[in-house]
Amino acid sequence: MTQAYSIMYNIVMVVLGVLLCICLIRAITGTRIADKIIAVNMMGTLILIIICVLAFVKGEGYLADVAIIYAMLSFLAVVILSKIYIGVYRQKLHQENENGKENDHA
Predict the structure, then answer these.
(1) Residues 34, 25: Cα–Cα separation, whole Å
(2) Residue among 43, 47, 33, 44 at smallest CA distance from 81
């Protein structure tokens, strides 16, 4: 029975690794910045799941603590990336409005 579980966990780790690679490709080739932010968030979630599976398989309790800390850092990274994106978007919108007003006066 334990050999069946070992095979199952190995398959799960391979599937998670493939999904992680797909998210990395999406983060690099994403057309919009929102796609890239979502891909980075999904990568963080997948890595969190990988750490949790490893904690269960190895029976190491400290890996659960590492997973919790990683979840907080991943969330913070996505919030910061979103905040930066919103600032860039507002600046671009402000510049477009100023250019539109200058063209109206000309």
Answers:
(1) 14
(2) 33
Question: Residue 29 is which amino acid?
Answer: T
> Which one-letter amino acid corresponds to residue 12?
V
Averaged pLDDT for residues 37-61 = 92
Instruction: Transcribe 26-75 into DSSP letters.
Output: HHHH-SSHHHHHHHHHHHHHHHHHHHHHHHHHHT-THHHHHHHHHHHHHH
pLDDT at 106 over 60: no
The answer to whether 30 and 3 are in contact (CB under 8 A) is: no
Q: How far apart are CA 27 and CA 48, in angstroms?
A: 17
CA distance 47 to 71: 9
d(CA 76, CA 103): 41
pTM of the complete model = 0.79
Of 66, 40, 72, nearest in space to 51 by CA: 66
